[in-house]
Amino acid sequence: MVLEIGTLSGVLPDALRFCFDLCTESTVLQGAALEIIEIPGRGHCHDCNTEVALERRIALCPCGSANLEFLSGQELRIREVELSNV
Question: What values do phi and psi take at 19, rounded to 5?
């Protein structure tokens, strides 16, 4: 299983990795491998028209503005699941 998790999503990839085996026990995903792709946060500042890296949901542009639009980093999606008849 491959998951995409954005740094601004509120989901901690290390916590998910830690509990994945326990959460999938006795389900069709038991024994599955987990790969997590971490998507960096990016935003667009409407005041200075610049794209900036974001590490937190509450952030300021280097110009000092909080007028930011999130472009990436909020993702939480299943990218791939491979099933086999074992």
Answer: -100, 5
How many domains is the chain partitioned into structurally? 1
* Nearest Cα to Cα of residue 83 among 9, 14, 31: 31
On whether the CB atoms of residues 7 and 75 are closer than 8 A, the answer is no
Q: Which domain holds residue 49?
A: 2-80
26 within some domain: yes
pLDDT values of the chain reduced to their tens digit, one per residue, 86 residues: 899 999 999 999 999 999 998 988 998 888 889 999 999 999 999 999 999 999 998 999 999 999 999 999 999 999 998 877 65
Cα gap 4→77, rounded to integer Å: 5
Full-model pTM: 0.80
